[in-house]
């Protein structure tokens, strides 16, 4: 084997070519491991957190398959990768808890390797803790150098001890590396990375770095390739898609990008995530209204309905501005579903502030809302503000959750008896005689069918509304 590695050409300078070079090299090491084990080595990639992380994991899997790993779901594998999230502390605690389990597997399988990557690894205190208390971890890398995964894999085979490579930030976007999609018919597409907003509770700008937009041509080419490969629905991903393109050499707006994407033949549905209310333009509302492909769904994080708290959160809009925006959107696009994120228990929040949030929920009538208890993140401005006692947070949280459930139920029920176009995603996990799909407005529908329907858009009668989902028939 070392012969073939010695015979490899020089390391190319171009970053994409460089990573393909390391994939070839890693492949030789994996083949060697396979010969030793008498089977293909297995790998399990476990993803925590948001859609961005899910997409990053698809990139990891793309490389792992190419170098010869068999991808499995079971964590009792030869190689386990945790792609971590750190937006709230419970995500971190989950990782620490499960690392103990992995250590148990590793004691029984001396060839096993463990890697950690993603947002949590961008926190210096986390790295210290892992070095000190979780010495059995083999590889740690962050969000900015994930494109280097093939190179790090090679380091994992060649170096002794824990391999650690964390970058503080990057302006690099590396195109055209392998990706292995989880679904054949739908895909996430990064259109931008990072965030410049610095909401005072949020750790994302510290772990994902500054805003960088991908070149529109690269995005369009990627989507065209996906469509040629059978994809009908795409989800454009960015922490704040409404500020897409502002920093490009030839600036372009998000709405203009959407107009270009709309023209791609064969593409049926366009989704995007996430929109910051302060940057949502009239141009975008217009493009959504005119579009045949952009889904009737807008995720518009509110965070709080109290102008005082919004100000302390550095959200840069007031309660009234948010309400006016929601009303404008509803007027222009009546069949749209609006969903949101809400944080309860932000420093300084009183029950009066919670009532303001509840007022917004009732007025906007969300189809769904993700409600989070505020989590103190070290290094963010809100961490040094006076925290709200736990019992008050709990009370506010329960009240918000109840309101969300009540309004969502009513909202979702408004389609009862109608016929909707549903993109079938999978056979239902708990009842194999049903399939599960999504309406354009993102509502889930379960109905009798089989796996041949997966990836198809079919017409379904919405018979029974069950809170956040429907039961129906084709
Ligand atoms: N505590 C609780 N929720 C948070 N979010 C972001 N940071 C925190 C935090 N420190 C929520 C916001 C954001 C969503 C992705 O996570 O609501 O929109
Ligand atoms: Fe965090 Fe605010 Fe950026 Fe969203 S917009 S990622 S909440 S800083």
Describe the 3D structure:
This protein has 14 helices and 19 strands. By secondary structure, it is of the alpha/beta class. A six-stranded parallel β-sheet has the order 2-1-3-4-5-6, with helices on both faces. Strands 15-16-17-19-18 form a five-stranded mixed beta barrel. 38% of the residues lie in helices and 20% in strands. Strand 1, helix 3 and strand 2 (70-71) form a beta-alpha-beta unit. Bound molecules: 5'-deoxyadenosine and iron/sulfur cluster.
Could you give a short description of this structure?
The protein is α/β, with parallel strands linked by helices and 474 residues long.
Overall structural class, as computed from helix and strand content, comes to alpha/beta
Overall mean pLDDT score?
96
- As laid out across the biggest beta sheet, the strand order is 2-1-3-4-5-6
Rg from Cα: 23 Å
Number of strands: 19
Number of helices: 14
Largest sheet: 6 strands, parallel
Q: Name the helicity range.
A: 25-40%
Distance linking N and C termini: 56 Å
- Report the principal-axis shape: globular
> Could you list the spans in which at least 5 consecutive residues all have pLDDT below 50?
none
The distinct bound ligands, ions and cofactors come out as: 5'-deoxyadenosine, iron/sulfur cluster
Strand content: 15-25%
């Amino acid at each position: 084997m070392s012969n073939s590695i010695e015979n490899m050409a020089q390391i190319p300078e171009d970053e994409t070519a460089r990573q393909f070079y390391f994939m070839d090299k890693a492949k030789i090491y994996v083949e060697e491991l396979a010969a030793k084990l008498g089977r293909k080595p297995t790998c399990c990639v476990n993803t925590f957190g948001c859609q961005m992380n899910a997409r990053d994991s698809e990139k990891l899997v793309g490389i792992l398959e190419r170098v010869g790993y068999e991808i499995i779901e079971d964590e009792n594998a030869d190689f386990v990768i945790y792609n971590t999230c750190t937006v709230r502390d419970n995500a971190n605690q989950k990782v620490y808890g499960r690392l103990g389990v992995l250590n148990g597997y590793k004691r029984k399988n001396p060839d096993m390797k463990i890697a950690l990557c993603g947002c949590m690894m961008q926190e210096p205190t986390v790295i210290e803790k892992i070095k000190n208390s979780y010495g059995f971890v083999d590889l740690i890398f962050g969000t900015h150098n994930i494109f280097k995964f093939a190179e790090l894999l090679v380091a994992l085979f060649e170096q002794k001890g824990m391999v650690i490579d964390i970058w503080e930030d990057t302006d690099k976007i590396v195109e055209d590396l392998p990706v292995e999609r989880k679904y054949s018919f739908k895909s996430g597409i990064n259109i931008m990375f990072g965030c410049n907003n610095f909401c005072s509770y949020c750790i994302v700008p510290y772990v994902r770095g500054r805003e960088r937009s991908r070149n529109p041509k690269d995005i369009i080419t990627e989507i065209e390739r996906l469509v040629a490969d059978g994809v009908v629905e795409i989800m454009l991903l960015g922490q704040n898609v409404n500020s897409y393109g502002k920093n490009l050499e030839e600036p372009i707006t998000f709405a203009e990008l959407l107009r270009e994407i709309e023209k791609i033949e064969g593409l049926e549905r366009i989704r995007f995530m996430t929109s910051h209310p302060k940057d949502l333009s009239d141009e975008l509302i217009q493009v959504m209204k005119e579009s045949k492909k952009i889904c009737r769904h807008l995720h518009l994080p509110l965070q709080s309905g109290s102008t005082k708290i919004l100000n302390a959160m550095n959200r840069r809009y007031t309660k009234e501005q948010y309400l006016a925006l929601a009303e404008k959107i509803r007027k222009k696009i009546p069949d749209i579903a609006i969903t949101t994120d809400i944080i309860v228990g932000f420093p300084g929040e009183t029950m009066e502030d919670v009532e303001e949030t509840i007022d917004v929920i009732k007025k906007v009538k969300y189809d769904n809302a993700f409600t989070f208890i505020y989590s103190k993140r070290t290094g963010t401005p809100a961490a040094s503000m006076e925290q709200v006692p736990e019992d008050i947070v709990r009370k506010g949280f329960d009240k918000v959750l109840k309101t969300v459930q009540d309004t969502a139920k009513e909202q979702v029920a408004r389609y009862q008896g109608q016929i909707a176009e549903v993109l079938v995603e999978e056979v239902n996990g708990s009842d194999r005689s049903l399939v599960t799909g999504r309406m354009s407005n993102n509502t889930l529908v379960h109905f009798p069918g089989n796996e041949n329907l997966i990836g198809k858009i079919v017409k379904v009668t919405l018979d029974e509304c069950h809170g956040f989902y429907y039961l129906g028939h084709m």
